[in-house]
Amino acid sequence: MQLPETPPPPKRGFFASLRASFFTGLVVIAPIGITIWLIWSLIGWMDGWVLPLTGGLNPVELIRRHTGFEVDIRGLGVVTFLVFTILVGWIAKGIIGRSLISWAEGLVLSVPGVRSIYSGLKQIVETVLAQGEQNFEKACLVEYPRKGVWAIGFISTNAKGEIADRAAPEPMVSIFLPTTPNPTSGFLLFFPRKDVIVLDMSIEDAAKLIISAGLVYPNSEDPTQRPDRIPDAAE
Prior knowledge:
flat
């Protein structure tokens, strides 16, 4: 008995083909266009914030005053800010610069209302810059918010200080658990080392997985491979 032939799939119409091409092009163009727009807007915001503070040293005003031409060069504020910051940092390294900074800080700290604001902002900036060169160690899996439910986190460091002392003799690690699709917010959790599973994927791949809400899977070659647990400190 001869089986009937499978009919060929229906041909895609002209408008359906155009729609598919449009969405394919949108996937390619949208990330590039949004990135360029964000960078362009950020540079413009910095220009609008920095240039008015320069007063008579405003490059736009100096060019207009000496040449008579009106210019609107995007990025002049960014360059001015970078040059000014480098110059201040270079002066601050010297004895005179440190003395001036100490005198200015003493003057600011003598004002009751300003003292609290300045101290808080200085502590935040110093903390951020001190941690700027430190990165997460590895991506990991932890059971959160309950047993049997797994979440992706990033291993920060081993628990230290009072947290490590109170948890002794159980070794603890600090885990940053980001939210989806915005990984810049999240929770700081402390887990026993034995309950944390290290992933082979990189930090960047784990971030893509979180931002895409699971749509972009980095380990497509062998997604069934079970990663190893965090090795003990003695290993």
